[in-house]
């Protein structure tokens, strides 16, 4: 075993004795001048940065993205410039609602956040293992997440809070159906798909915009845990997914996903929306593959484990606002909220200069006028800390990087489409795709927590199931009856 280097303070000053505090005599009180003791205790008290409000429990790994198909007709982003081109990546998988010490196998969506270290800066695709979400407007996100956390009085998880919210928000039904299906408890992180979930955009050299949905299709095959197995593993090995991912990569069994996109122009989305009545930028909806087929882009592989979990996974700070030239956003209300919320959360959780940390730093040169604050590692050196005003003005149209102008329509107001939009058809379509056994699993998984809530909430939620498909409502009623809740 190699000899360890001598202990120093964080400032590099050699420590004479790491075993004994400085005291006034052999049995006297400790002296304030023992800086090593104070620094050691101070750092220990601060070892835990605030955990993420959501996605607190997670696993990470490094890898590569390799282009296999040409999409330069859609985007000028340099990472797609040539077939065979590789880009270094980092991924963080996670559960959503649980705390940092919660079990990996809980029924919950899974975060699927990928960073691409491109030559034009970091591109972060921050999504989930589901192509839809519970709500369509970010103003309801804090309310929704509070229902997934703990009751303010009992400090317990509360099915009443969850189903009270969901039963009053039929827009959630699509994702609730996915959550309580077999896919609500994936077998680790390697055997699940990933999605950008939101609608994003791509911009080509001519300044033309198309809208896209990103898909990561696992090459390991989809595997899910039965509800009983997920519960058992939560007790036997709460770090099951972390162990599986780390062990597979350490053994050279590198997981891979095929990266694909759905593509649509403004005109195509407008025609589709007119025909279906669905808003293509609504996160509670998906784009059916029959209308917008998947197109292959590349292969994503994970092939290197982190060396230090805290430095590389816990401090990883991803945000959908990180989009490189050739990429852009959409009018998706949830995406618009996340563009602000994620970066703001990282400023609070990790610090003002979190982008300076190695896992977050771009692999290309960067320069700005941001200075000072905590963790200002280089702080810009002697470079000028302000930008002068160009008296001639900035020429050219668009929003930067050659992105075309985004046409807006209508007066500014708070628009509520709830009660007027179709929240049931896509949830019913998902239900009808399930084989008989998966439907029964769905009924049983829902009946467990629903059996613990009031009749009023149950009836409200059953009404949504009925509208999605009468067999859906009937199946949950039968499962509730089997648990002693005869709700008619």
From TrEMBL:
Coiled coil: none annotated. Its EC number is 1.11.1.6. The active site is at 55, 128. Residues 8-395 form the Catalase core domain. The keyword Heme applies. It catalyses: 2 H2O2 = O2 + 2 H2O. GO terms for biological process: hydrogen peroxide catabolic process; response to hydrogen peroxide. It holds the Pfam family Catalase-rel. SUPFAM superfamilies: Heme-dependent catalase-like. Keywords: Heme, Hydrogen peroxide, Iron, Metal-binding, Oxidoreductase, Peroxidase. Residues 1-21 are annotated as: Disordered. GO terms for cellular component: cytoplasm. GO terms for molecular function: catalase activity; heme binding; metal ion binding. Heme binds at residue 342. Its cofactor is heme. Belongs to the catalase family. Decomposes hydrogen peroxide into water and oxygen; serves to protect cells from the toxic effects of hydrogen peroxide. This is Catalase. It comes from Pseudoduganella aquatica.
């Amino acid at each position: 075993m190699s000899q360890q280097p001598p202990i120093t303070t964080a400032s590099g000053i050699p420590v004479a004795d790491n075993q004994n505090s400085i005291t006034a005599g052999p049995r006297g009180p400790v002296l304030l001048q023992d800086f090593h003791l104070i620094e050691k205790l101070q750092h220990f008290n601060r070892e835990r940065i605030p955990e993420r409000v959501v996605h607190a429990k997670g696993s990470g790994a490094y890898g590569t993205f390799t282009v296999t198909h040409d999409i330069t007709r859609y985007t000028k982003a340099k990472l797609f410039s040539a077939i065979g081109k590789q880009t270094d990546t980092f991924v963080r998988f996670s559960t959503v609602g649980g705390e940092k010490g919660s079990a990996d196998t809980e029924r919950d969506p899974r975060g699927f956040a990928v960073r691409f270290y491109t030559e034009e800066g970091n591109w972060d695709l921050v999504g989930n293992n589901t192509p839809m979400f519970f709500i369509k407007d970010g103003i309801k996100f804090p309310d929704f997440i509070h229902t997934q956390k703990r009751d303010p009085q009992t400090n317990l998880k509360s099915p009443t809070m969850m189903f009270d919210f969901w039963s009053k928000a039929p827009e959630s039904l699509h994702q609730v159906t996915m959550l309580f299906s077999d896919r609500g408890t994936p077998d680790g992180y390697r055997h699940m798909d990933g999605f950008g979930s939101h609608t994003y955009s791509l911009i080509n050299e001519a300044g033309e915009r198309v809208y896209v949905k990103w898909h990561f299709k696992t090459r390991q095959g989809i595997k899910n845990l039965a509800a009983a197995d997920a519960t058992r593993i939560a007790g036997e090995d709460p770090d099951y997914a972390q162990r599986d991912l780390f062990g597979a990569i350490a053994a050279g069994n590198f997981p891979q996903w095929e990266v694909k996109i759905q593509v649509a122009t403004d005109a195509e989305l407008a025609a589709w929306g007119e025909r279906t009545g669905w808003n293509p930028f609504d996160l509670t909806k998906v784009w059916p593959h029959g209308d917008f087929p998947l197109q292959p882009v590349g292969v994503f592989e994970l092939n290197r484990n982190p060396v230090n979990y805290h430095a590389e996974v816990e401090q990883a700070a991803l945000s959908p606002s990180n989009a490189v030239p050739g990429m852009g956003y959409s009018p998706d209300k949830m995406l618009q909220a996340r563009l602000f919320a994620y970066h703001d959360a990282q400023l609070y959780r990790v610090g003002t200069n979190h982008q300076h940390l190695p896992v977050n730093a771009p692999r290309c040169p960067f320069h700005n006028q941001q200075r000072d604050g905590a963790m200002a590692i280089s702080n810009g050196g002697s470079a000028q800390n302000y930008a002068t005003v160009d008296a001639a003005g900035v020429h050219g149209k668009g929003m930067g990087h050659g992105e075309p102008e985004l046409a807006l329509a209508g007066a500014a107001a708070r628009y509520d489409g709830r009660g007027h939009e179709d929240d049931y058809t896509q949830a019913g379509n998902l239900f009808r795709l399930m084989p008989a056994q998966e439907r029964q699993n769905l009924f049983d998984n829902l009946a467990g927590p629903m059996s613990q809530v009031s009749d009023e909430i149950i009836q409200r939620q059953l009404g949504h199931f009925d509208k999605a498909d009468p067999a859906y409502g009937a199946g949950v009623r039968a499962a509730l009856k089997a648990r002693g809740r005869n709700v008619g």
